[in-house]
Amino acid sequence: MQGTAILLTQGLLHTPSAKTAHGLIRGSERFQVKAVIDSVSAGKDAGEVLDGKYRGIPVFGSIASFLQSGMGSAHFSILGVAHAGGAIAPEWMHSIRESIVAGMSVVSGMHQFLSENPEMVSLAAAYQVELIDVRKPKSRDELHFWSGEIHSVTCGKIAVLGTDCAVGKRTTARFLVQACRADGLKSEMIYTGQTGWMQGGKYGFVFDTTVNDFVSGEIEHAIVSCFREENPDVVFIEGQAALRNPSGPCGSEFLVSGMSDGVILVHPPGRIFYKGWEKTGRKIFPLANEIDLIKMYGVETLGIALNTQNLSLSDAKDWQKRFEDELSLPVVLPVEEGVEGLIPAVKQKLSELKR
Amino acid sequence: MQGTAILLTQGLLHTPSAKTAHGLIRGSERFQVKAVIDSVSAGKDAGEVLDGKYRGIPVFGSIASFLQSGMGSAHFSILGVAHAGGAIAPEWMHSIRESIVAGMSVVSGMHQFLSENPEMVSLAAAYQVELIDVRKPKSRDELHFWSGEIHSVTCGKIAVLGTDCAVGKRTTARFLVQACRADGLKSEMIYTGQTGWMQGGKYGFVFDTTVNDFVSGEIEHAIVSCFREENPDVVFIEGQAALRNPSGPCGSEFLVSGMSDGVILVHPPGRIFYKGWEKTGRKIFPLANEIDLIKMYGVETLGIALNTQNLSLSDAKDWQKRFEDELSLPVVLPVEEGVEGLIPAVKQKLSELKR
Asked: Which residues contact A233 (CB under 8 A, 6 or more apart)?
């Protein structure tokens, strides 16, 4: 599945909630993004809204104005907001109908499946387009149990974990793959979320939509397949949530079942509480404490990537310096400065593994 | 769903693999167990095979010999072996057919669903019996996301975790509920496995068959429902697997999303490697190290229950003494001596919570 696409972000493009869209604006080998539909950011360039970098992706206020712009239509209309779950809101249903009528197949990561909505199914049939539910679980005969085969993998396996959700784990992992390649290392990414698939990921699975019994086996299968088929020097495994995220702790699967050799940890110093759970008073744990927890799983943290939400660049740089001193680890600002500063630590780990 | 039942254990009754059957022999409010079908242990009493205690449950070598014994038939035939997954073996299919033809509904915890097997479905229809797949996932509209409502629960919440699979977490939790009740505390169990449901559990869910995104919400929903409807002093949450079990690490969900106030930790000193993964060389972590890891999740371990597999009673008592001295915690042998020795620590925690 490949083609041109528009992204629907329902006025949320400028917020972290549109993280699916943000990933696709940053880059995708599966979908070529032509435009974003967002009433709040209409008239701007989507890249500039995202991180100030122009990317030639215009934002339109409506699907109608996109279709009238002379850019032509697109193959796919992608719901670009990560939802915590629940029903599909009426305004979304409206945009989905409009997309179908305009002849675009709809890609959805919603928990409620479009392909189980009778109205959408008949509308899609009438306009001969597809409804693609990225969260739809695989059938049981496509799933794998953990087998221990991971013990046969000899390339480096580095998990990109975070101290919270929506901090840029996927983006950091993607940047690391690119930076390693630029440095002559054969590197691959193991995606674990729907956006990773949308970006064209070949090895991976959608973690949160997998029946629990198969999660560890799917991680192992993705890494083993990638290792056998691509023979990389190193794979970067996209983490999910955080080890102590109250609404769904996650991470030990990558460390234990995926046998990670090292961790790059993404942390948002400008956030106090776990995202979305401010009302419960659940604070994000201190960075050093998270590193200690990862160590209890037998894995060393190799470096830190900072998410700069709620911080000025100068404050972010202060945090960077502070953590470098405190932890004696390389600390980078991926979006602002890239991740090249982490590559020596990655290479050091790879050379240790070869010994 | 309630009634009389036979348990099929296919020659494995005397091994830890028959843990589903073992749980039901120990006790169930849902099924009244009349007999066990097991060629290896035929002629013995199932309770004596299990732990040397006579329970008046005869073991027959075949379904035919049970039916000819004069005990009458049963409502249900239950597959009593916990499988790591995969296809249903031919010898099982044979026993399932025999059960159906004898007019018994079949209860299965297999990963392959009987209700999706056309031959079994038509055979069950012909004999007017039911096929009950305990592992069949709930539909999405029956599932819950984590909401933070757990913060409103004021009773004690104690997780019964283990340092490995199949060490007696469920049995220990059941014993703790009974011992607390005997001591005048209103206590309830939150089941998280199929056997817990088979034993008649009212509050809980089948962890490993739940789509990952809903695991934390289902834990919360079970505890919150139990708290609201029963107003207990304390709930005991059945753990699953182990925090660092390679084939499926598990436990942080109970600690973080279920907001456990304390842990009772079950440990098998007679085992060196994680069960089933001896070939990978993955060793079970030392007990003190597991307690440290649990502490990193903010939860205190209140006491230890020892699984005595591979140990003489005298060796088990040596370990008990050694751990008591090393950890300054109460240590019990649940099957041999009961769990009463843990109740003072539970009550101490409950009184701290009330302050």
From this structure: A155, A156, A180, A185, A186, A187, A350
Report helix angle A343-354 to A169-182, nearest 10.
Answer: 70
Q: What is the pLDDT of residues A13-31, one digit of tens each?
A: 999 889 999 999 999 999 9
- Indicate if the pLDDT at residue A141 is higher than 90: no
Gap between the Cα atoms of A322 and A316, Å rounded = 10
CB-CB contact of B270 with B262 (8 Å):
no
Q: Is the dihedral of CA A178, A183, A188, A191 positive or negative?
A: negative
Report the predicted TM-score, pTM, of the whole model to 2 decimal places: 0.94
**Beta carbons of B257 and A279 less than 8 Å apart:** no
- Provide the pLDDT for residue A90: 86
In degrees rounded to 5, what are phi and psi of residue A243?
-55, -30
Q: What is the pLDDT of residue B84?
A: 54
| CA of B205 vs chain A CAs: smallest distance (Å) | 12
A–B: how many Cβ contacts below 8 A? 119
Chain centroid offset of residue B132 CA = 18
pLDDT tens-digit readout, A147-206: 999 999 999 999 999 999 999 999 999 999 999 999 999 999 999 999 999 999 999 999
Chain B residues whose CB is inside 8 A of the A243 CB are 252
Tokens of A22: 């943000």
Residues A305-334 have pLDDT tens digits of 999 999 999 999 999 999 999 999 999 999
Mean pLDDT of all residues in chain B? 95
B213·A146 Cβ contact <8 A: no
Ranges of residues in chain B whose predicted pLDDT is under 70: 83-87
With cut-offs at 50, 70 and 90, classify the pLDDT of residue A84: low
Q: Do B244 and A256 touch (CB under 8 A)?
A: yes
Beta bridge partners of B204: B191
The per-residue pLDDT for A5 is 98
Count of residues making up chain B: 355
* Rounded-to-integer distance, Cα B50 and Cα B36, Å: 12
Average pLDDT, stretch A241-263? 97
Is A243 in Cβ contact with B249 (below 8 Å)? no
Measured between alpha carbons, how far is B145 from B128 in angstroms, rounded to an integer? 37
Radius of gyration of chain B (CA): 20
Q: Is B119 exposed, middle or buried (0-12, 13-18, 19+ CB in 10 A)?
A: exposed
Q: How far is CA B73 from CA B22, B35, B124, in A?
A: 21, 10, 16
Q: What is the pLDDT of residue A85?
A: 59
Kindly report the three-state secondary structure assignment for every residue of chain A: CCEEEEEECCCCCCCHHHHHHHHHHHCCCCEEEEEEECCCCCCCEHHHHHHCCCCCCEEECCHHHHHCCCCCCCCEEEECCCCCCCCCCHHHHHHHHHHHHCCCEEEECCCCCHHHCHHHHHHHHHCCCCEEECCCCCCHHHCCCCCCHHHHCCCEEEEEEECCCCCCHHHHHHHHHHHHHHCCCCEEEEECCHHHHHCCCCCECCHHHCEHHHHHHHHHHHHHHHHHHHCCCEEEEECCCCCCCCCCCCCHHHHHHCCCCEEEEEECCCCCECCCCHHHCCECCCHHHHHHHHHHCCCCEEEEEECCCCCCHHHHHHHHHHHHHHHCCCEECHHHHCCHHHHHHHHHHHHHHHC
Between B145, B208, B247, which is nearest A84 by CB?
B145
Residues in CB range of B16: below 8 A, 6 or more apart: B166, B275, B309
Q: ipTM of the assembly?
A: 0.92
